[in-house]
TrEMBL record:
InterPro entries: Beta-barrel_TonB, Beta-barrel_TonB_sf, Plug_dom, Plug_dom_sf, TonB-dep_rcpt-like. It comes from the Bacteria. Transmembrane segments: none annotated. Residues 69-182 form the TonB-dependent receptor plug domain. PANTHER family: BLL6183 PROTEIN, TONB-DEPENDENT OUTER MEMBRANE RECEPTOR. Residues 251-718 form the TonB-dependent receptor-like beta-barrel domain. Residues 1-37 form the signal peptide. One of its GO terms (molecular function) is siderophore uptake transmembrane transporter activity. Belongs to the TonB-dependent receptor family. This is TonB-dependent receptor.
Length: 769
């Protein structure tokens, strides 16, 4: 699904209401995207007036015909692939953090390719066990991994991105996990992206990248696209190196009525993480708490998609996909029970464990969608009906190895790995949805939508020694949506909308939900009492518009309320992996978004402000022994009104683009984020206080030596600020000389996910036709 300017069928009932040429979602949100700072050539403006086009936005998993921009009741944001290329962002998450409204990142893993995305207070994270609140799609295929709903941003082929669209709210048509929004990625094709290029770059932290891209047309009906890249990075800190290998290709057939596309991709990445470190370690911000901690991500996927116009008013679209995913995680962990006397009367003298888990998932499925453009009661009407089925088989194994710490906090194994868990899961998700947009007149329209979801998760113990692991869980619900749009002039749109969504508990949550049998995440399953599905209800009111030919703006106010929200409750302090999942009642994310973009000659300016008030709305108790406000049993009480950790309330972003000459462009991103609470401080009472906010400046520049040769440079964190994006409370076991292991002198501290210091990179790109 994607935003696009599409050739309209002859009898399309939605007529363009002006000759203005908009950049997909720019009129929706005034996104801070660098490419918008370039003025449209006058010749293009003339052509556009002669041949007006309909600007459509995809509001369902499959694009279909799309919905006219003026009839979308949401503050949608759209990023174009060339915007990411122009800023030379190292990762997708980095670009979104710098340029999109209401998005921030948390670096809990200590690796820039494994950051969490927070959008309006909802998370899409690669960390297994993190409650997810966003659904992510790649060319109409949901890429939240079925085992845990995690999102591996490093597996999305960045060079192949045509657009990224952020759909806010609980839009039910996108199915499960769309609590706070959907992130929808569409890829390039050879007809729209002819020619090729090769690019190399290098710079700070030993980062070296190489990339090739080629697209073109074969005959009159076929086109092709291919890209591949490699990246090696030593990491800015100790033990957080990265190796990424990505490839993506697409072959398409198109004629007047039909488009058929076959795409495939693969990735093989190794990502080391430095974890969070306690405040007492800030004498050397480059050190890791313990190591090794490595994720090996591998994926291969194949997608067949197509659409066909039976008539100018009837279109059928669909897709089929297969995806093979493998993750191997090796992590070093302190033995929380070191020095304690066991049930057998023996003192536990094992300092550490190396935990190793492997997840292998084969997922497949398909979608089918029918779009009808017609008249209803004499008025324009668009009806979309769709169905989707997604299925996955996952195999999870986990083993543990006893270990001890060296003076550098590396773990050295004692003996071999002993199997702990061997489980298989089966996920089945069915969905039937509709969306109907009815135009009362040229100014008013109404959108009705809904989706019925049926989800089943079957968990089975393969080891024969954990029978409590076996379980069969089914969830279902119909989620509705309604929205109204008012367009009194072509340059102004106001809207109001209400929608609902559902997230069913994942297999990992269901298999770790027993307070009497806490498990180690992401490495162990014990039992699976039922959890309730999370239900979201979102209200949003907003407006967007254009002033003259150079300025766009948007504003939105929203409130999303969750019932039966799921939280991982630690059994031995927030930083411990030992605990269980539970429904914690109600939570709320509500806020304000303001954005604008304008062009003054060679200077483009884009700015945004977002306010997010994320709070618990129920009272509940959790174990957080490292919290200074904990009682004698290590428990804290979370009250209604306490802020949810990790979510900043205020974020300001400014993007400046200056075309110094026709060949030379200079840009800068300025980002401010205020303070956050650390995880484990859900009651907001810990004496360590909040994690401080920060202000960052990034620079980028591009110079076109010739039409084919381009050189570029980027500077991240220009002022070399020392800052943190994430915090968690925990127990520090390394208070011996030079931070060596000392279980007899543990301290409760704030552990921080640190931001990278200043980095500089340069590169060049050579293009050909």
């Amino acid at each position: 699904m994607k935003s696009m300017t599409r050739k309209a069928p002859p009898a399309h009932p939605f007529k363009p209401r002006s000759a203005l040429r908009l950049c997909f979602g720019s009129a929706l949100a005034g996104l801070t995207a660098s490419a918008w700072a370039q003025a449209e050539p006058a010749s293009e403006a003339v052509v556009t007036k002669e041949l007006p086009s309909i600007i459509v936005v995809g509001t369902t998993p499959l694009l279909g015909v799309g919905t006219p921009l003026e009839k979308v009741p949401a503050n949608v944001q759209t990023i174009r692939g060339r915007d990411i290329e122009q800023q030379h962002s190292p990762t997708i998450t980095d670009f979104m953090s710098n340029n999109t409204v209401s998005i921030t990142t948390n670096d809990a893993q200590g690796n820039s390719s494994q950051t969490d995305i927070n959008y309006r207070g909802f998370t899409a994270s690669p960390l297994l066990g993190t409650p997810q609140g966003l659904s992510v799609f790649l060319d109409g295929v949901r890429v939240n991994e079925p085992f845990g709903d995690v999102v591996n941003w490093d597996l999305i082929p960045q060079a192949a991105i045509n657009t990224i669209q952020l759909i806010p709210g609980s839009n039910p048509t996108f199915g499960l996990n769309t609590l706070g929004g959907a992130v929808v990625v569409s890829t390039k094709n050879g007809r729209s992206n002819p020619g090729g290029n090769a690019e190399v770059s290098f710079g700070s932290f030993g980062r070296k990248t190489a990339q090739i891209e080629q697209g073109g047309v074969i005959g009159s009906n076929l086109d092709y696209y291919f890209t591949a890249n490699v990246s090696n990075d030593n990491g800015w800190a100790d033990h957080n190196a990265s190796k990424l290998r990505q490839a993506f290709g697409k072959l398409r057939y198109t004629d007047a009525d039909t488009t058929i596309s076959l795409s495939m991709g693969a990735a093989d990445n190794t990502l080391d993480g430095s974890q969070t470190i306690p405040r007492s370690f800030l004498d050397n911000r480059h050190q890791a708490y313990t190591f090794p901690d490595t994720n090996e991500n591998q994926v291969g996927y194949l997608t067949l998609s197509g659409d066909h116009y039976f008539s100018p008013n009837v279109q059928l679209s669909g897709n089929l996909y297969y995806r093979h995913y493998r993750n191997k995680n090796t992590s070093s962990n302190v033995n929380d029970n070191f020095g304690e006397v066991g049930d057998d009367g023996v003192i536990d003298d094992i300092q550490a464990f190396n935990d190793q888990s492997v997840i292998v998932t084969d997922s497949y499925g398909g979608s089918l969608q029918l779009t009808l453009l017609n008249k209803l009661l004499g008025h324009d009407n668009q009806l979309v009906i769709g169905a989707a089925g997604d299925f996955a088989n996952s195999h999870f194994t986990q083993a543990a190895q006893q270990a001890f710490f060296t003076d550098t906090r590396a773990t050295v194994g004692i003996g071999g790995f002993e199997p702990q868990t061997d489980a298989k899961t089966r996920n089945e998700n069915w969905g039937i949805y509709f969306e109907n947009t009815f135009s009362f007149n040229e100014q008013w329209s109404m959108t009705l939508a809904g989706r019925y979801n049926w989800s089943k998760a079957v968990i089975g113990d393969e080891s024969g020694v954990q029978p409590l692991l076996d379980g069969n869980h089914t969830f279902s619900r119909f989620n509705p949506a309604i929205g109204f749009n008012w367009n009194p002039t072509p340059a102004f749109t106001a809207y109001a909308t209400y929608n609902e969504g559902m997230r069913s508990p994942t297999a990992i949550e269901l298999a770790c939900a027993d307070p009497a049998a806490p498990c180690s995440l992401p490495n162990d399953f014990i039992a699976d009492p039922d959890l309730q599905p999370v239900i979201s209800k979102t209200f949003e009111v907003g407006a967007r518009g254009r002033i003259g030919n150079a300025t766009t703006w948007s504003a939105a106010v929203y409130s999303t309320n969750l019932s039966n929200d799921i939280q991982f409750v630690s059994s031995q302090g927030a930083a411990s992996t030992l605990g269980y999942f539970q429904n914690v009642g109600k939570t709320r994310r509500q806020g304000l978004e303001l954005a604008g973009r304008t062009q003054y000659g060679p200077l483009g300016i884009a700015a945004s402000y977002s306010y997010v008030n994320a709070t618990y709305r129920s009272t509940w108790t959790e174990s957080s022994a490292s919290n200074s406000s904990a009682d004698a049993d290590g428990n804290i009480t979370v009250h209604s009104g306490d802020r949810i950790p990790g979510i900043p309330s205020n974020t300001i972003k400014l993007r400046l683009d200056y075309a110094a000459t026709p060949k030379w462009n200079v840009g800068t991103n300025l980002t401010y984020r205020n303070s956050i609470f650390a995880r484990g401080d859900e009651d907001n009472q810990d004496s360590n206080g909040k994690i401080a906010g920060y202000f960052l400046i990034d620079l980028d520049t591009t110079y076109n030596v010739t039409k084919q040769l381009q050189v570029f440079g980027t500077v991240k964190n220009l002022l070399n600020k020392k800052y943190s994006t994430f915090g968690i409370l925990g127990e520090n076991f390394f208070n011996g000389p030079n931070h060596t292991f000392d279980s007899g002198a543990t301290t409760n501290e704030q552990f921080l996910g640190l931001g990278a210091p200043r980095g500089v990179w340069v590169g060049m790109r050579y293009s050909w036709l």
